[in-house]
Give the backbone structure.
Amino acid sequence: MSAERFYITTPIYYVNDVPHIGHAYTTVVCDAIARFHRLDGRTVHFLTGTDEHGQKVEKAAAAAGEAPQAFCDRLSDSFRALMTQLDISNDDFIRTTEPRHLRACQALWQKLVERGEIYLGAYEGWYAVRDEAFYGEDELTLGPDGKRRAPSGAEVEWVKEPSYFFRLSAWQDRLLKLYAERPDFIAPDSRRNEVISFVKSGLKDLSVSRTSFSWGVKVPNDPKHIMYVWLDALTNYITAVGYPDEATPSYRRYWPADMHMVGKDIVRFHTVYWPAFLMAAGVEPPKRVFAHGWWTIEGQKMSKSLGNVIEPVATARKYGLDPVRYFLLRELPFGQDGDFSHRAMVGRINGDLANGLGNLAQRVLTQIQRNCEAKAPAPGAFSAEDSALLDKASALLAGCRADMAVPAPHAMLERLWAVIGEADRYINAQAPWKLKTADPARMATVLYVAAEVLRHLGILVQPVMPGSGAKLLAALGQGEGARDFAALARRLAPGTALPAPTALFPRFVEEGAAAGAGR
Ligand code: MSP
């Protein structure tokens, strides 16, 4: 497994607005997957970045009274800062206004022209700036306000202008063949089925340039036209690994990407347009596109007009970064929609974290500190109960690998927490505190077993909660070199010095309830 590579991408984020919890979600999910593969010995390339061209961004810049580039610089910085604030381990951060990207877009365009895949025509039809997407009349609804809207709810406007077209209609059969030959190209299955029926219903050629505004990548040899922002944006995934220099080591190592993670709203762009553009240019399509669900906030759609937009950094400040990362990955079955509520968050923090992993670590480490001279105890012979628990801990890695291959981070966390429950029951049953004078050798064995289980948990929880995992491992005397998955095959060395433990996860106390909490 050691030399295997893994290339994972987030969507690149529109800079028309500051980051919200939806952006944080896709990013944290990818981060957990990237960290998991790194800890498992793979060479990982994890890409994120910002999508800066198009009419939507141009309008947002104008509304802010700023020049588009200055506006993009400012907003892109807020996404870059988000990565640090959320402890994201991205290897690259791409901006679509960078020279490397303009070059890649123009090269891809040129390739499509050379291969006869692009022709000049005129577009007449509906366009939604918010979605940066073209819609057919049959897809629209007419609201009571007399406005036509796309299925996403975005308002559409009539557009009529000269445009280059991509021969998407010619790719229908080859796309269907791709989906048939590679059943895991689109996941989950519900999304796959939607895409297949969309493609089967017939594809029209796609307008891939605009002339009515100018904030975008210029079409080679016809600079009145700028490229359709989705053609520009999707290309980021190959730009970042070196396209058009297909011989460069990073391109050869990382393309095709192992996984494009996207929200359910942008599946069509990634599973229809993108593989068609690539195949048409003679480039291998990505291996997989996974679509995750959307968060509502306290049961409502998140929107500026409702004033319920969740700001990720403030949220992390309020609840703690790792608890928020844990919540995002644990709260909903990955792929489905879910609700972000204060109550559910506090339930997870106080239940799963403070009373669960936090309490287990605290009781085991405190007893070792007090009764075993602050050193990992030397175990005697293992009883059937000891071995049963150790076996469960040892079986975690294989289970977690299977979960993350789906990917189903919620299932991985459930699996880890099931062992936390087992370990709690084990300690209650073995009651090492009662053995201190009666049978200190047995006490040492019990605490050793519990510490060894904690070591497994500490290692495996790192992809989701890197800070807390590292803190737990440090409390178990495990240095940087002993924290990857290879270390799971070894055992905690008796005699390892353990520093005095500090609480891993404080309980969340509601404001105003603090007075009673200390009693
Ligand atoms: N710029 C495009 C992507 C181009 S990729 C070549 C874009 N950007 S976005 O900023 O609007 O959205 C980025 C991601 O955030 C999408 O995957 C979207 O699904 C996700 N989310 C936006 N709101 C969300 C929620 N309320 N919940 C979960 N994810 C959400 O689309």
The longest strand covers residues 118-128.
